[in-house]
């Protein structure tokens, strides 16, 4: 864990140095001006993403059947200089998918999945799931022990204190949610479900996944998230930045047309009626 945070510091320091070099550059022609602005934007976004990854940098580990080297799963990918194998795998990468989808019956080459919770740079809890049924039985452990461990992590996240802002669910994405997040890009994808089932969180994580998988394409066209109201946008505003994605535009329906402010002030009596609480006698339900 310490090595991963050390590497994060190294990469961030390198990006800060490159940003300072770009800012100090004095362009002498229009092409140089464009190149300088592009470099500043690139390194600025990189630093913002690295800063966002500081909180909860590592949250998982996969121990595989065919290798003694564990795979660490986190918010971003980190490589050692000149290395082909990553030190830390981005949660959106294909190699990280078994962290969300492997089960004892379909272990996807994983014998153990570890959930890691940190506070700052300190590990505060670890929960292991044994996916190798034969190994678990040989040790005298119940074969569903891993499922209980995974559920405990999810319950801990659900019972965490609320802040009035939506938080990301990158540590606790369920297999059904992962299928939606990583679905092929073919036309319109409609996500349906009842209130509180996680539709908005899944949609935002899918946006982060698409930016990771099709970044070059989306960098040209951009990504727009439309919400029903400014209040809703404030509620979800922290999710994508926490995943290192700061280039997404958020807009409410009334602000889709530049320069047009959509306001519809209510008459005092109507505003009072809409804001009032309702209580109905049990013998007289509303009709």
What is the strand and helix layout of this fold?
Layout: H1 2-24, H2 30-53, E1 58-64, E2 71-74, E3 89-90, H3 98-101, E4 110-119, E5 122-130, H4 133-138, H5 145-158, H6 175-181, H7 199-213, H8 215-221, E6 224-227, H9 230-236, H10 239-242, E7 249-252, H11 268-275
Parallel strand pairs: 2-3, 6-7
Antiparallel strand pairs: 1-2, 1-4, 4-5
Notable characteristics:
single chain; 287 residues; alpha/beta; five-stranded mixed sheet; two-stranded parallel ribbon; 11 helices; 7 strands; 14% strand; disordered C terminus
Task: Give a brief description.
The protein has helices spanning 2-24, 30-53, 98-101, 133-138, 145-158, 175-181, 199-213, 215-221, 230-236, 239-242, 268-275, and strands spanning 58-64, 71-74, 89-90, 110-119, 122-130, 224-227, 249-252. The protein is of the alpha/beta class and 287 residues long. Strand 4 and strand 5 form a beta hairpin.
Number of DSSP-assigned strands: 7
Distance from N terminus to C terminus (CA atoms, Å) equals 60 Å
Instruction: Please state the structural category.
Output: alpha/beta
Number of helices: 11
- Fraction in helix: 40-55%
Shape: globular
Strand order of the largest sheet: 3-2-1-4-5
Tally of separate domains: 3
The profile of the biggest β sheet is: 5 strands, mixed
Oligomer kind: single chain
> What string, H for helix and E for strand, traces the elements in order?
HHEEEHEEHHHHHEHHEH
- Radius of gyration, taken over Cα atoms and rounded to an integer in Å: 23 Å
Low-pLDDT segments? 141-148, 279-287
**Averaged pLDDT:** 84
- The percentage of residues in β strands lies in 5-15%
């Amino acid at each position: 864990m310490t090595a991963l945070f050390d590497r994060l510091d190294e990469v961030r320091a390198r990006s800060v140095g490159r940003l300072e070099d770009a800012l100090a550059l004095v362009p002498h022609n229009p092409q140089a001006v464009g190149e300088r602005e592009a470099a500043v934007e690139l390194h600025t976004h990189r630093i913002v993403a690295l800063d966002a990854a500081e909180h909860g940098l590592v949250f998982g580990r996969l121990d595989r059947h065919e290798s003694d080297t564990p795979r660490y799963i986190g918010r971003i990918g980190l490589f050692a200089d000149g290395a082909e194998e990553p030190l830390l795998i981005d949660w959106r990468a294909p190699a990280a998918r078994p962290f969300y989808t492997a089960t004892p019956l379909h272990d996807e080459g994983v014998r153990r999945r570890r959930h890691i919770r940190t506070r700052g740079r300190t590990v505060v809890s670890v929960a292991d799931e044994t996916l190798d049924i034969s190994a678990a039985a040989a040790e005298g452990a119940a074969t569903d022990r891993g499922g209980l461990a995974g559920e405990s992590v999810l319950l801990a996240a659900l019972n965490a204190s609320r802040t009035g802002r939506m938080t990301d669910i990158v540590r606790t994405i369920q297999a059904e949610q992962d299928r939606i997040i990583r679905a092929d890009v073919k036309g319109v994808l409609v996500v349906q479900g009842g209130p509180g089932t996680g539709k908005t969180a899944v949609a935002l994580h899918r946006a982060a996944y698409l930016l990771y998988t099709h970044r070059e394409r989306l960098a040209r066209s951009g990504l727009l998230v439309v919400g029903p109201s400014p209040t809703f946008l404030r509620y979800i505003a922290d999710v994508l930045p926490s995943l290192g994605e700061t280039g997404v535009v958020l807009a409410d329906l009334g602000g889709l047309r530049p320069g047009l402010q959509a306001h519809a002030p209510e008459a005092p009596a109507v505003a009072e009626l809409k804001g009032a609480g309702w209580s109905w006698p049990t013998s007289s339900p509303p009709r």
